[in-house]
Design a protein that fits this description.
Layout (H helix, E strand, L loop, with lengths): L6 H11 L6 H18 L5 H11 E6 L5 E5 L1
Antiparallel strand pairs: 1-2
Helix pairs in contact: 1-2
């Protein structure tokens, strides 16, 4: 089942799951990327797309003691 969400739904749910991983600006960039991906391919946003986006557009800087992955945007 698919659910249509707007940016504010996306941001709220993302912050609920990973509250310290992304700034609001980072979530806007990620949202825009996922929207562009969906429009160009007709596919939704599978989790591997988020990982690929991070690998292409951010630098991994480490992991917190709780296991949260930390990235710095280019």
């Amino acid at each position: 089942m698919k659910t249509t969400v707007n940016f504010y739904d996306f941001k709220r749910e993302f912050k609920a799951i990973r509250p310290n991983n992304f700034t609001d600006e980072g979530l806007i960039v990620l949202w825009d990327y996922l929207e562009e991906y969906e429009q160009s391919t007709g596919e939704g946003e599978p989790s591997h797309i988020v990982r690929e986006y991070l690998e292409e557009n951010a630098t991994f800087v480490g992991t917190t003691p709780s296991g949260t992955l930390l990235y710095r945007w280019f």
